[in-house]
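Hi support team,

I've been running sequence recovery on a batch of backbones for a student project. Most finish fine, but this one hangs at about 90% for roughly twenty minutes before it completes. I'm not sure whether the input is malformed or the queue is just slow. I've pasted the structure tokens below so you can try to reproduce it. Let me know if you need the job ID as well.

Thanks,
M.K.
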């Protein structure tokens, strides 16, 4: 039997995860921003710590848009390069998520939950990206 050249290699679960992660990240960003504002009002938040926390959140949001765009584009066009770049930007997002989980000035239980969910999504997405890249390279 001849090979079907029009076979779809792009991953539907990965595309769905990009969509869900995009929605979740909007919630994550707003919740984290609200908590940073809350913490700055309720706790004695050192002035020189507020700016880095806010800057990290905004850098993370730029990375997130880039990560999701490249990942989605790479998956839909079945190209490993954008998907690989998305995987690389995920590393930056993971580092920033760990920062908010462990190293930010004040870590609330809500921070722990939000970042644990985000890190789980990154892990799942990374496994699916590697699988998709392997399918594209064949």
């Amino acid at each position: 039997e001849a090979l079907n050249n029009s076979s779809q290699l792009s991953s539907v679960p990965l595309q769905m995860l990009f969509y869900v992660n995009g929605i979740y990240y909007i919630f994550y960003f707003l919740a984290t921003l609200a908590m940073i504002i809350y913490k700055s009002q309720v706790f004695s938040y050192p002035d020189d710590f507020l700016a880095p926390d806010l800057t990290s959140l905004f850098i993370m949001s730029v990375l997130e848009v880039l990560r999701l765009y490249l990942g989605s584009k790479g998956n839909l066009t079945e190209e490993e390069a954008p998907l690989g770049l998305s995987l690389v930007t995920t590393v930056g997002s993971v580092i920033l998520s760990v920062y908010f989980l462990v190293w930010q000035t004040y870590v609330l239980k809500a921070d722990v939950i939000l970042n644990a969910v985000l890190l789980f999504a990154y892990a799942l997405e990374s496994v699916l990206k590697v699988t998709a890249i392997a399918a594209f390279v064949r």
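--
Follow-up from support: It reproduced on our side and the slowdown came from queue contention, not your input. Residues 1-5 have pLDDT under 50 and may be disordered. No action needed from you.
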